[in-house]
UniProtKB/TrEMBL annotation:
PROSITE patterns: HIT_2. One of its GO terms (molecular function) is catalytic activity. This is Unannotated protein. It holds the Pfam family DUF4921. Coiled coil: none annotated. InterPro entries: ADP-glucose_phosphorylase (IPR053177), DUF4921 (IPR032576), HIT-like (IPR011146), HIT-like_sf (IPR036265). Residues 76-184 form the HIT domain. It comes from freshwater metagenome.
Length: 211
């Protein structure tokens, strides 16, 4: 398990790269990811992450922006952190972040890491808060490993495009790779989750994690 100091350095490096990309004229969006395990598309055996600068804003991000705009209760993520703080879907939290198995989970043990401070852009987050989010990610992965072993996963950072000023709240998705996408999912776009998020969160929360 990475130390607190290493986590702080990793998150600081991510922020620095995003700032650089934001000032690069041909980059409209930067996608930061971690692919772990062959089933998750990892191209290297050792732990690693990737940062990809794109000349367009991906449809997934545009759709999330539209969802934020449609929501009438303020910020979706802020509202979710408040609503989920006392539910069975809560996995863990610290001063700066909350981890839940969202009620809309599309796959088993899917987790959402939500910064408590409202910032559209990851780059606007204070160093202490950013480290806190990194620690929540580390601890969420530790609970996942304690529950299911060293399984494949995708870790996906979603932040507002650098030049967009709409409503957004950056966050992180954690997708364990336990199932395959079959014909029904391909044909309809409707995902089947065989484990209720409440059950997944209970298992993750109660897992014995080594310090």
């Amino acid at each position: 398990m990475f130390s607190d100091q290493v986590i702080a350095e990793m998150m600081s490096a991510l922020k620095s790269r995003l700032v650089t990309h934001a000032h690069t004229s041909n980059i409209r969006y930067t996608q930061a990811i971690v692919n772990h395990g062959r089933e998750a598309g990892a191209s290297l055996a050792h732990p690693h992450g990737q940062i990809l600068g794109l000349p367009f804003v991906p449809g997934e991000i545009l759709e999330e922006e539209r969802a934020f705009e449609r929501f009438k209760g303020g910020c979706i993520v802020c509202t979710t952190t408040e609503a989920e703080s006392q539910t069975e879907r809560l996995v863990l939290e610290n001063e700066h972040a909350m981890v839940v198995c969202p009620f809309w989970s599309s796959s088993p043990y899917e987790m959402l890491i939500m910064p408590k401070a409202h910032n559209q852009h990851l780059t606007d987050t204070s160093d202490d808060a950013l480290t806190g989010v990194g620690l929540a990610i580390r601890d969420a992965l530790a609970h996942l490993v304690a529950t299911l072993g060293d399984i494949a996963f995708n870790l996906v950072f979603h932040t507002a495009p650098s030049h967009h000023a709409g409503i957004f709240h950056w966050h992180v998705h954690l997708f364990p790779k336990l199932t395959t996408t079959a014909g029904f999912e391909r044909g309809t776009g409707v995902m089947i989750n065989i484990i209720a998020p409440e059950d997944a969160a209970t298992q993750l929360r109660s897992a014995s994690v080594q310090a």
